[in-house]
Amino acid sequence: MTSSEHTNSAVDHASNSSMNFHNSNETNDDLLTLPDLHFSYRKTSVALYVAFLIICNVVIPCLLFYLLQNFTNITTKELIGISSAALGISSCFDAPFRLFRLVKHARTYGPTDVWWHLDFVMWTYTFALLVFAFPLAIAPAIAFYNFFLMSTMMLVGPVGVVFFFSLLAYHYQWRLPVRCSSEPVGSLMKPAVFYCLEDVGAVDFMHGRIFRQRVHRRWDASPPFRQLMTELTIYWVISGAIYCGLTAAVTWAATLNFAFGWVLGQFFIWAFVSWVGCHFLARRGLKRERAYWDDRGRTLFKENTGPGGINEGGEQEKPPKRSRSAPGHVNDSASADTSTPTTPATRSLNAPPSKVEKTEVV
């Protein structure tokens, strides 16, 4: 073999080695791990809480109103006053308990270690309760009973206004003048459903501050997830507006005896129907999210559960040994001596990066 042939053989071998190495890197790079939320819940706990709300806000007020109306001689003004007191029972329990958990265990559930840095849900819920209290307090005193029936609308309306404002802020890229959940002053505001997901999962479902990290990583990594949060916020704004319109129509068009029981029951009918629609949109959005990454030639680390994996009882499989994280996502499989970069969205979250867990995953 001549020296020229030796040279050509060496060049071909080097070229083939380079191509094989390049293809190997492409194969590894095509493995993309989407940040999982690891959200789980107990159906029994949710069912008991819903039953508690229905008993306090429908059963007890209606029993008091209709039984006292038919079997006693007390006036309508006194009936409304008694029913008004009964209607606020549930708020006397859930709001203080949530506030206690958020303040007392700020390092575990709160967005920061500062106890008075309450989250978005707590501030919004407090604002809605203050507006909700006006018809309960004023209507019996001035004998304006139709105004009393507007109380549930006064609870839903302010939340809808906050949600609508978050959409405007997100669209026009307004920066936060105050801290909002885990985000510091000066951050771009996100749709309200994103903050609700972060806060309710971290505090009410007791997944802690690590859940806040996971939600922000998912937001940073996945454009379809951002689109889903926006769509769900729009959905709840429209749903809340429909509820307020229906409540106003029944309140002013129907008699007090009919409107009293219907308005209180209508709130939970609306909540159930809205939940069904939200559940459908969320599952569709999670399917679309997976299709988005598949269409771009990425092989997602998929779970055995269905799309979303919420309450499916699945367990996370062993991830690929080498995977490339999505943009903005910190790879949880990195070695311990590798420093973890901090994104602006998660700068105030001090919990360690998430690890592979056996749990129900989103």
How would you describe what is shown here?
With 362 residues, this protein is mostly helical. It has one domain. The chain has twelve helices and three strands. The chain has a three-stranded parallel β-sheet. The relative contact order is 0.14. The model is unreliable at 3-8, 13-30 and 301-362 (pLDDT under 50).
Number of helical segments? Answer: 12
Give the percentage of residues in beta strands: under 5%
Regions with little confidence, pLDDT below 50 for 5+ residues: 3-8, 13-30, 301-362
| Computed Rg | 27 Å
Quaternary form: single chain
**Which structural class matches the secondary elements?**
mainly alpha
Task: Report the strand count.
Answer: 3
- Strands of the largest sheet, in order across it? 2-1-3
Distance between the termini: 62 Å
